[in-house]
Queue: 2 jobs
Job 1
Amino acid sequence: MKVGKVYSHFGRFWDNSFYGNLPYFDGFKLAPEQGVSLEASTTTAKVGPKVDFAAQYFVIDGLTNGAYRGGDTLFDPGSRRRNIAIANVEPVYQISETASVGADVSAQYFQADLADAGKKDVYRLALGANAKYGPVSAFGEYTYQHGQHVMNYPVPATPATTTTDAVPGQTSSHNHYVWTGAEVNVDKFSARYNFSFVSYADVSIKETIHEPGIGYALSKNVSLLTEFVLWQTHYKNPTRTPVYDRSLNFIIYGSF
């Protein structure tokens, strides 16, 4: 049992990237909240079946995550996420010490307390699968969201000018996310490709992030990583260009 500011366990935790993915930029991933987390596993055996569980209740959001500005409730002044409840079940069959197959099912409810729109109920469901065989691993996850949790995203509001009136932002209460990736590790090298997709169905906007990466382990504690990122908008959006970000990123990663 953990009490305090704890990472939420809705769906797969992470994809080993540096830059991130669309669920992350909408506040789903690497999001610590304020509350209680119960986490357990049915066994610690190296081979055979096991099930990991997590049941979490957070009184209020932690005001800390990597969401893109406007992509999460906390970016609206005076708005917070409250009464966050998460259940996560991850069955895994460890075929051998180097091979496994698994799945995960997660459900989340929270209340988006929006300063300009009142309290909104938000529901999320995530279904995922993963596999590993020797140096190769892969995963996939689908998430559906029902409910409004922001005011001005993915289309931000346009302020008034001396010649034009203000235009309110647009949001979507029915969103579909797909997140998948594969990785190969050979000696000190690793090669990875991650892909994420979101459809904001209510405003007919779709976005994708393609993210290949190559890593090299200098030592047990220090690694080098290069990632290329292509973040695109696929439907006409007056606030964004079709290519939102195209970047090549170099990272030195250290741990102790």
Job 2
Amino acid sequence: MSPQNGPLLYVIAGEPSGDVLGARLMAALRQRAGGRVHFAGIGGEMMRAEGLSSLFPMAELSVMGLAEVLPRLPRILKRLKQTLADIEARRPVAVITIDSWGFTGRIHKGLKRRGVAAVRLHFVAPMVWAWKEGRSKQLAERLDLLMCLLPNEPEYFRRHGLAAVHVGHPVIESGAECGDGDAFRQRHQLGQGSLLCVLPGSRRSETSRLLPVFARTMGLLKSRHPELRVVVPTVETVAADVAEAAARWPLPSVVVRGAAEKYDAFAACQAALAASGTVALELALARLPTIITYRMNAVTSVLARKLVRLKYVSLVNLLLDRPVVPELLLEDCRPDLLCAALDRLLVDEEARREQREGLAEAVQRLGYGQDTPSHRAADAVLAAIEGR
């Protein structure tokens, strides 16, 4: 470790949303430490932009669902061993994992078993309070500190013997509410007609199931809104698949990449259709009326229904305990139902207004207007290292 670079922090993200959080955390850590910190680990394009040389492509970890994971399990286990060996060789002062507990939880288990001296931290609490309370003990055994996004989470985990701190939800510092819709329309020659934002997910396991449904949905929408055009923000992990699929949709589509393009698209569009995930919160911050959907493998769907104890999937609805954002999940992820729900948002200004009011209320509860979560998380990381 070079003294002029300061301590080495090993940061691991397993999917695009974690890549965004990791990039912001790296920038905040560098600022708080006066530049005297450097990084190794696993990440995507956002973390690479902050100077990370990823141990291997993050896309190899971007998979969700039992049926989707099983065929790739040997490869994932190989990457697990490779990561643990790399951490042992580099001897960082801390290992910071971000979400993706199926992989990152095993990293922490392996570190503890091998006696690695690094402080073990995790950013984004697994939603064990929603479906598997017994796993809280597992987290407490493997981690030194858990950094939580929601204000009710730290107390829950402390009851299970785990040090936890609330840092706030990073979506509030994303800039999703600052898009320039007029500039986006001009840049892509979209005129002033109606635009629909379509976000089919960031994992291949998501896009492979949703893109065919979305294609048929676009066909139904064309008969009701022949002038409608579609904007499809996507990410590195699935960009090629999404672009290929969107090129065959019956409605004209524009595929874009990057946060700035995505947020400009939000500002330009009248409504959105999105896979359930972090992007739903970005849409909430942008106050863009949205339909949330998701489809899983049949086996995974059965397990989810048996295990999950939540009334809603969308965090907006969970925060407000009412269905502000319509959710069409699993067997309800059907072209006819999606088309009907989108049609209402496209033609009913009152429906859009009501949803926008609910979205504004939800983001306030997430901490909008307060200190940035990235800097609070950076402070928690540095305090944990100093405490050790």
